[in-house]
Design a protein that fits this description.
This protein has 240 residues and is α/β, with parallel strands linked by helices. The protein is built from 10 helices and 10 strands. The chain has a single domain, classed as P-loop containing nucleotide triphosphate hydrolases (Rossmann fold, 3-Layer(aba) Sandwich), CATH 3.40.50. Helix 3 packs across helix 4, helix 3 runs parallel beside helix 5 and helix 5 runs parallel beside helix 6. The relative contact order is 0.17.
């Protein structure tokens, strides 16, 4: 589904942010992309979306991430931003959700059905006609996820999906993410959330792949995490 082949990228010449990065994510996998600040996580997302271009090859299914393929690639990928205010740009949740399906060529009737189906699935029907500036941060994060799902993407990219949420809304988002059937790539400093939603973890440090394997193994490796400026998830600290 997603493949990086020897990808490197620099914002400034001679200072690599991503260096010779290779990994493959199969369809249906849920993968956590972790690392300290500056590890290269956000750049990986930008490379996938074709917001920046580097050396090497990146594929989404059989499509290489190149300018000529960006329209098709972005139909396959849904991106949930860290700051929902940067994603919800229409007056109401409904208008945000129906915007992409209408622009993808669906009739209004088809688009409205997609919106209603997603809202019902996520138990968010009461948000349909709410104004974005009048809903809570947790509701807005869930509405942003709903907006992405209305596009029917094959894979979902998420950047810090639980940041700045209170415990209740954090739990709602975790439960929702865990139940999504799409291929998922999630970046987060919330390693407990990664442990609950991802079966596999990719660890970056200095733009290089340091570890790639089962989430439980990597997230329980205190030495590995601390060596890369991260802490053991709270849920694993008291394990014997």
């Amino acid at each position: 589904m997603i493949e990086f082949r020897n990808v490197s990228f620099s914002y400034e010449k001679g200072i690599p942010v991503i260096e010779n990065l290779s990994f493959k994510i199969e369809s249906g996998e849920s993968v956590g992309l972790i690392g300290a600040n500056g590890a290269g996580k956000s750049t990986v997302m930008k490379l996938l979306l074709g917001l920046v271009f580097g050396e090497g090859e990146i594929f989404i299914d059989d499509l290489e991430v190149q300018k000529k393929n960006l329209a098709a690639i972005r139909r396959k990928l849904g991106f949930v931003l860290q700051n929902s205010d940067n994603q919800m740009f229409m007056p109401t949740v409904y208008e945000d959700m129906i915007f992409a399906p209408l622009n993808y060529g669906f009739s209004r009737e088809e688009a409205e059905k997609k919106v209603d189906d997603v809202l019902e699935k996520l138990a968010l029907t009461d948000l349909k006609y709410r104004h974005n500036h009048k809903i809570s941060g947790g509701e807005k994060r869930m509405a942003a996820i709903a907006t992405v799902l209305a596009m029917e993407p094959e894979a979902i990219l998420m950047d810090e999906p639980t940041s700045a949420l209170d415990p209740y809304n954090r739990r709602v988002v975790i439960r929702t993410v865990r139940e999504l059937p799409q291929t998922k790539l999630i970046t987060s400093h919330d390693l407990d959330m990664i442990a609950e939603t991802c079966s596999r973890v990719i660890l970056l440090s200095g733009g290089k792949l340091v570890a790639d394997g089962p989430a439980g193994e990597i997230l329980r490796n205190r030495e590995l995490l601390e060596r890369n400026r991260m802490e053991l998830p709270l849920s694993y600290i008291n394990e014997r």
